[in-house]
Structures
1.
Amino acid sequence: MLEIIHHGGATGVTGSCHQLLLNRHESLLVDCGLFQGEDAAEDSFEQLQIEFDISTVKALIITHVHIDHVGRLPYLLAAGFTGPIICSIPTAKLLPLVIEDALKIGFTRNAQLIERFQAQLEKQIVSVPYGKWHSISDVSDHNGASAGTTRVKLKRAGHILGSSYVEVSYQDAKTGEKERIVFSGDLGAPYAPLLPAPKSPYGCDQLVLESTYGNRQHPDRRQRRATLKAAVEQALANGGTVMVPAFSIGRTQELLYELETIIHQARSSRWQSLEIIVDSPLADRFTKVYRELKPYWDKEAQGRLRSGRHPLNFANLYTVDSHAEHEQTVEYLAKTGRPAIVIAASGMCAGGRIMNYLKAMLGDERHQVLFVGYQGTGTPGRDIQQYGPQGGWVAIDGERFDIKAGVTTISGYSAHADQKDLLNFVKRMRRWPHTIHLVHGEQTARAALKSKLEVLYLTKGKQVNVLSSS
Ligand SMILES: [Zn+2]
């Protein structure tokens, strides 16, 4: 059995980075993510450094472009990694945008340096179509003789555009023994807007499985759209703004898609005239790339396009670009209470433009904060979610803000599979893995999923070893 080392993402939901050891001098890396929230250590610069030996890494495989899966990539390149960066075709389009942003925030503002980095990155990216095996150059032993062959295949994960889970097939040259390992990356929920649901692989020996919602069930899509509509209507009635902290990639576009649906179906003129503001140049850029990548949308979205609708580019949609415009928008909405929906990053309220909206509007009961994504422990987002409904407060930049605004959470837009979906991912394989590594989940989520998986295997009379770090 090949060994897998987790350089992050084993005990928390961020910093995903897994190394598959093919032998003593060859390995593959799956993702190279950034730690966020509570997972980030005090001295975060230390964590950014690639602290493990990368001389054995033959290739890096990127499952998707969320920062907790790709954020340490610049540090990997800086550490001297020159191998191929394997990803899906849409991911190859999105990745340079994400990395450019990550560089500006955490690395350097030096335009020349950023350009050099980007050129280097573009050189190393190898985009591969979904569902096709891609050979990694032969693994060799210390004498240079072939020791084994490695192939990887990406399959659609339904999490964000371009997201994949990874199948690795390894065959030892001497013994002829084969092993199949699947890395789930982040799996999407079925019925996610825009994306087809993930289909399980035929089977594998080892599975590295995410467990973000290992202890939760999502409401169904109709119910969550109704909750979204109700939250917005409440704010409309109050004459307030709905603040939606959202990741630039994935959730923002899903949300726009859902809002277009509600507006399309709504009869009231209030909905028809409601302004939807994306206050994030980055989210706007991603939305544009999402529009370009229409061939990767699901059937429902394709159908809407054919009927002349524009799910990601409709009449009520406005984008805020410059910082001055951003400040004006915050001030205007806080003062006038003109009904609007504002979508701004960061998704967990740990920085970004959403912070100025929160500071200006949390203390006013006309407004609403609408969470559509997972809030990591230790983030201001989690505090608002937890203490807001009881009339509590949150500390932002060392200052105390009372929460009078309404707080609503809709978990279905999280773009992560829930407990049932995760179990189905295993259940629907023809050949179940004998070893499952649970990663990318808090301890309680991993513990709940572990026991469910063990019961599942027991009822089928099968054996499994579920590994979960403590
Ligand atoms: Zn993700």
2.
Amino acid sequence: MNKQNILQLVCSITLILALFALPGSAASEVKASDSELMPRLFSLAESELGELEAENTLIITDLGSSEGSYIYQDAFYKEFFERKLSSTKNLLKVQNSKNSPFWFAFFNKASGNCSFIEINLGAKPELSAPVTRNIAFEKLYSNQTAWTEEVNQKVFKGREFAIVTLANGWVEGLDYELIRCLETHNHFCPGVSSGYVLAKWMEENYPLSEGEQYLVFSCPTWCKEDVFVRLWDATPGKRGLWASELRAEEIEALGGAPAGIFVVWNGKEGKGKAVALNFDFDKVRESCGSKAEDAGWASKYLMDVWLLDDKNWKGLVSEAAVLEIDEATLAELKLADSNPYVTLGLLNPPEKSKPLENANPSEKASTGFFAWLNQLKEN
Ligand SMILES: [Zn+2]
């Protein structure tokens, strides 16, 4: 072997070693952070709440969503499973924007105590001092002013509604399918609950046959859309869901409670059934036990709890119309300049609806769904 060949061989070996060494060193850096941060987090939570028993513990977190947090997932699950916790029973891993802070809420059902801890993922990751409050709903409800004050102070950094509703809802018992929707929506509200009721109504009354899928013209919009996205994979990107608003006078003309048009579509046959549904929020509000003077967060949670019981669902969803549609009508429904209710002949086009144009929107907004929405906003 001449000198040049030896030099080439040395260079090749060095290059190969360098290629293997790079990912190895990156992985060991991640592991170094892992080995300290998550054990510290769990110890901190335990110092506030006591032992994290499977029977009493719920952990809510945006681990994996917040930018950079994903590298702590394996270390998190190591601590989590060491404590015999279950990923389907003791964890709500909520979806969040990558720009949002990285946080954890540890909740103990037995005491009602909840510890909120943020993680600052700087060069040297830091845990915030835990903020622990008793958030058992009955306790908060009995002194609403005190909790409203805490909410105003952003005691859980603006996550108060999400944490209180998710933790207390979990105590009541959440179906796993609902949990998936709540993780996507990242809080528990009457809007997402109504979406769950609507989805279950469709699944019961118009179950999918082979080759069929649900397409949703979610008009008007409220928190319900995230349910169809999560349960049916009806994502806007895959042309499964179109969301748009209605004017107050259009809602009124549609009877005051339109909840969208749900299409059972058979792509192969190029035909489907369009089912226009109403949702009776007035009944929810009247039946949930909320009082007029209750704070907004309290009314919403009482509606959530009432909607958790499927015995209460009877009569909430009603059919406004059922129409057979073809590909041409479906294509028309999808257009940006078409109102799906007008396309299906359920609503007059704006230029033909003179009496509606003359209606007083503020007066119309004081009834039905908008009244509910406005009432909550006021609180
Ligand atoms: Zn919501």
